[in-house]
């Protein structure tokens, strides 16, 4: 009996890079005025090199812009791969960004990965405080 694997769920949201690429390549902006201002302001930190879009970090390093689905796969690889250990979402995103990748929803994606990881929940910080304030018992 042949069972076909289920195709991965596609993300219905449009690629976040599309309006920025339109601005960088054609110079066109969205018709909505507020959206056009936002795209024009954000496009200043991006650059096109050899057909790839890169974001200039504050330190001047170029980070390759990747789609959200590729970013989630990268985070899962970092989280469970050779350098995998159960860390906070900011640390996970820092590892991905230090490797030279960028996408705007990285922190939210990393938070979701950490929230659903069984190992992260098992090794999470435990609060060693009582549920109520301690009351002293006076000596009579």
Q: Any overview of this molecule?
A:
With 140 residues, the chain is α+β, with helices and mostly antiparallel strands. Strand 2 and strand 3 (62-65) form a beta hairpin. Helix 3 packs across helix 4, helix 3 (68-80) packs across helix 5 and helix 4 crosses helix 5 (106-116). It has six helices and four strands; from the N terminus they run H-H-E-E-E-H-H-E-H-H. It has helices at 18-25, 33-42, 68-80, 89-98, 106-116, 118-122; strands spanning 46-49, 52-56, 62-65, 101-102.
Q: Summed up, what is this model?
A:
The chain is an alpha+beta fold and 140 residues long. Helices cover 41% and strands 11% of the residues.
Task: List its traits.
140 residues; alpha+beta; 6 helices; 4 strands; 11% strand
Q: Using DSSP, what is the number of strands? A: 4
Helix content: 40-55%
What is the overall number of helices? 6
Distance between the termini: 80 Å
CA gyration radius, whole angstroms: 22 Å
Q: Could you spell the SSE succession in H and E letters?
A: HHEEEHHEHH
The rough form would be described as elongated
Averaged pLDDT, please? 83
């Amino acid at each position: 009996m042949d069972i076909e694997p289920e195709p991965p769920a596609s993300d219905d949201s449009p690629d976040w890079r599309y309006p920025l690429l339109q601005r960088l390549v054609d110079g066109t902006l969205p018709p909505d005025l507020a959206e056009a201002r936002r795209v024009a302001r954000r496009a200043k930190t991006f650059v096109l090199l050899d057909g790839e879009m890169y974001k200039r970090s504050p330190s001047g390093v170029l980070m390759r812009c990747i789609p959200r689905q590729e970013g989630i796969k990268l985070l899962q690889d970092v989280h469970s791969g050779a350098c995998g250990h159960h860390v906070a979402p900011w640390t996970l995103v820092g590892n991905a960004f230090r490797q030279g990748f960028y996408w705007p929803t990285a922190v939210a994606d990393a938070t979701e990965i950490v929230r659903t990881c069984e190992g992260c929940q098992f090794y999470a910080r435990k609060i060693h405080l009582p549920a109520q304030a301690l009351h002293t018992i006076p000596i009579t």
